[in-house]
Every structure is written in structure tokens, then in C-alpha cells.
Amino acid sequence: MSADPRSSSAGSPVRLESVTKSYGSTTVLHGVDLSLAPGELICLLGPSGCGKTTALRCIAGLEQVSGGRITIGSDDVTDVPVNRRDVGMVFQQYSLFPHLSVARNVEFGLQMRRISKPERTARIGEMLEIVGLEHLAERFPHELSGGQQQRVALARALVTRPRALLLDEPLSALDAKVRVRLREQIRAIQTELGITTVFVTHDQEEALAVSDRVAVMEGGRIAQLGTPEELYRRPVSPFVADFVGLSNRVEGRLDGGVVRVHGASIPVLEAPQLTGVGAEVTAYVRPEHVRLEPVTERIDPLDAVVVSSGFLGSIRRTVVQLADGATLASQHGADSVLRPGDSVRVTFAPEAVTVAPRS
């Protein structure tokens, strides 16, 4: 019996140093720097065209970098071909061999590495147990659900015990409930095996749920790198505030360390480019920091009327309109039921917000 992969050491560190990638005159990666600690899971998050998949493909060796360097462990792999980088890859399209059973699909990489038959059998059994598919070892891909096929692809990537695991939008083809369940399973398996992982997604909820850290990408650069909590609570730019979670865009004026919006004052995060008093800005206010209190009549500048209110399970999302026509979204407890036409008073939680010059 081979050594259980669950007892193996943590994965290898992965590092990108000033990595650039150009296609002719078009540059899609602009000097990307990123370091992953052994066993860490980092999500590359961003909209289509931001460079996240290109960065992943450069790590894999599927794209040749135009400048900079990539290391895995202590090895410089910048010019090493993909088949010699010792990474596992799972993509949106599972690419399972339709004529091979689950066990034979998982075995394929081991055969290519000329692993002995007893060792292959042991590893296949261990990996199928980890992904919860040992009872389906002799099934064929067309006999499996989408989530089961994705777990086969994950097992196939992990069975060779790679130094790093690369996941390119692996859940985007699945329905919502299966996505949530499978992302939790992937995170549990990744943590159990201690494998260094890069996970590419455009789904900010997915990124926040599974990551140790998230690299938000914009225009081929990393706009911000931090824990999910840091990105959500202290976004460094309007782009990050707008892309990670929901934000109300509220017009206001700077006044020292606060921004005045509709007669209320909200503290601001550091904005050195906007020093001074009276600068016109847009403040990015999270819906959960917009508080609503029912009133019998609207007499205050922050009094509003409810436009809509939707039930979202444990919370409700309510949209209100102020007297000047501005709208605000609020997220609050599901027990606080507000109906269209109700009058409410708006207050803001004293949570610091990101601001930007008003365009």
C-alpha cells in the first residue's frame, strides 16, 4: 500500500515575478507579482478579459510568458514545458475520456508516469475515497451527473500528487446548488491534502467562500490582494468595492475624514488623492450598512419611501427612494418586513467607505 496522500507534506510555494504576457501589440498581463505559500488557496477574481485565466495558463505552461519568471518550489519553471511542471489542472470542461471508466480516467496520469500497477491501484482507491466516488469506480462518464464528473476530473488531477493544483472556473457549468456543495468539497479536499491551489473564477461569492486570499484583477494587473474580509471591508479602489459584493453609489462631499451624504456623515477609508474639504465624490456604501426605520411621515432629508422589498431567506433586500430621487438598497433581517409605499428613515452605520472623485 502506498503512503496515504492525506499524510503528505504541504504543497510547494508558487511565485510569479513581474510576469508579462503579450499577443503581438496587445499586452494582457502587466508585470504581475504573486506569491502563494505552501498549501494556500488563492483565487484570481475578475471580469472577463482581466487576465486571470491567462495568468493561470502561464503557471501551467500552456502559455509562454513574455517577461518575468515563474517558480514552483525552488525550481524556475518559466521555460519548462507543461508536462514537466508537475501541476494538476481542472478546467470548466471536464475532458474525461468517454470510453474509460471512472477508475481508468483517474489512472490515466499514473500510467503516463509509468507508475507500477499495484501503486496505481492503491492511489486510485485512495483518491476515489477522498472525493467520495469509490462506489462509482466502474461507471462511465455519461452515467454520472455534472458534479460527479467534476469530482472525477479533480481526482485525476490530484492522484499524481502534483506540487500545485490549478482550477480554471471548474464550477461554472453546474447549477447553483451543486456549485455550492462542490466548492465546499473542493475546499475541504484541498485543505486535507495541503496542496497549493490557484482557483480562477469571475464569481465573487465563490471566491470569498473558498479562498485564503483573493487577487482581484483589473486590466491585466492585480488591483488588490488580501483576505476575503480585507477585500470586502477595506477595498482600496472603487473597482474593488464595486466588484466584490454589492455597493450603493452615493454622491457626497468630503469634509476632512468623513464624507457628507444627504445630510449624514460617514467615515472614509484613506483617500490621499482626495485630500481637502468640499471635494465632490462618490461613496461606496454596502447595503447592510444602510439602516431603515419605519416612520409615520417624511420630514427629514433622509426620509424615504420603499420601492421594493424582496425575501432572500435569512435576509431581505429593500430598495428605497429619497426625496431627491436617489435610490438606496438595504439588506436587513428577514423579520423586518417593509412593503412598497412604506415611509422609512435612513441612517448609515459608522463603517468607513471607499470614495472616488465624482465623474
Name the CATH superfamily classification of the largest domain: P-loop containing nucleotide triphosphate hydrolases
CATH topology of the largest domain: Rossmann fold
Name of the CATH class of the largest domain = Alpha Beta
Helix content: 10-25%
CATH architectural name of the largest domain: 3-Layer(aba) Sandwich
Q: What's the helix-strand series?
A: EEEHEEEHHHEHEHEEHHEEEEEEEEEE
Task: Report the count of strand segments.
Answer: 20
Mean pLDDT: 90
Structural class: alpha+beta
Rg is 25 Å
Major sheet attributes: 6 strands, mixed
Distance between the termini: 65 Å
In what order do the strands lie side by side in the largest sheet?
6-7-8-3-9-10
Proportion in β-strands: 35-45%
Indicate the overall shape: elongated
Number of helices: 8
Q: Which residue ranges are poorly predicted, with pLDDT under 50 across at least 5 consecutive positions?
A: 1-9
**Total separate domains:** 2
InterPro entries: AAA+_ATPase, ABC_SmlMolc_Importer, ABC_transporter-like_ATP-bd, ABC_transporter-like_CS, Mo/tungstate-bd_C_term_dom, P-loop_NTPase, Transp-assoc_OB_typ2
Pfam families: ABC_tran, TOBE_2
Keywords: ATP-binding, Nucleotide-binding, Transport
GO molecular function, one term: ATP binding
Task: Describe the overall structure.
By secondary structure, this protein is of the alpha+beta class. It folds into two domains: 5-237, P-loop containing nucleotide triphosphate hydrolases (Rossmann fold, 3-Layer(aba) Sandwich); 246-357, Nucleic acid-binding proteins (OB fold (Dihydrolipoamide Acetyltransferase, E2P), Beta Barrel), CATH 2.40.50.140. Helix content is 23%, strand content 35%. The protein is built from eight helices and 20 strands. The protein has helices spanning 52-60, 102-112, 117-130, 146-158, 176-193, 204-210, 228-233, 238-243; strands spanning 14-23, 26-36, 41-45, 67-72, 75-76, 87-91, 164-168, 196-201, 213-218, 221-226, 248-255, 258-261, 264-267, 277-285, 290-294, 303-311, 315-322, 327-333, 343-348, 354-357. It has a six-stranded mixed beta sheet with strand order 6-7-8-3-9-10, sandwiched between helices. Strands 13-12-11-14-20 form a five-stranded antiparallel beta sheet. The longest helix is centred in the middle third of the chain and has 18 residues, at 176-193. The termini are far apart.
